[in-house]
Amino acid sequence: MSASNFNPIWEDSIYGTGNHLNKYPFDNVVTFIFRNFPRNKPRNEIKILEIGSGAGNNLWFAAREGFSVTGIDGSKSAIDFAKKRFEEEGLKGEFLVGDFTNLPLKDDSFDIVIDRGSIVCVGLEAGKKAIQEAHRTLVKGGLFFFNPYSQAHTSFSSGTLQKNGQVTDIEHGMLVGVGAISLYSHRDILDALPCEKWNIKTLKHKEVKEIGIYQTVHAEWEVITQKI
């Protein structure tokens, strides 16, 4: 990813040091794929792209289920981990180090694009560019799963909001230590998914509250939207 967009903390302090190299998929990604993959063609012809694919844990699941998968991430360590795992397990997949705001991929080439908490790692305008790239690479009628954090999250109010929409110096909540993060309002979601390009199928807001000493809130959006 370009220096202007990729936060080096993910390479230098997280993936590069062996942290967050998740092995198993997120349950909401599993649910989304199984409920929404096209039923009119074989699985090996259904192409899934994950932007900000990290260690490839979501695509590992998808590849095991027979889908054709591609992942892109700004961290070389994460991509190397995913490639090695796929090779060791005999799975097929393409993994690229690159910028998800400027995808090195063809127009109209994927049935599904997934973002699970990755676009939040750039500012709101850069996030719009990433979503525009997701739109460009999707086939007409293809689906985009957009899963950003919400401003109802404890980490939003415990940091410093910058002009680009990112929150820095987060002191509380589950997002401590991951650098600058954009947390989305309902208006931000709608601005990023203009109705002339996208048909929003579902828009959910989820909150998990920890009851106890810390009383933190983890809040996120789950959006399924279709390319018009």
Automatic annotation (TrEMBL):
Keywords: Methyltransferase, Transferase, Ubiquinone. GO terms for biological process: methylation; sterol biosynthetic process. Residues 48-142 form the Methyltransferase domain. GO terms for molecular function: sterol 24-C-methyltransferase activity. This is Methylase involved in ubiquinone/menaquinone biosynthesis. It comes from Bernardetia litoralis (strain ATCC 23117 / DSM 6794 / NBRC 15988 / NCIMB 1366 / Fx l1 / Sio-4).
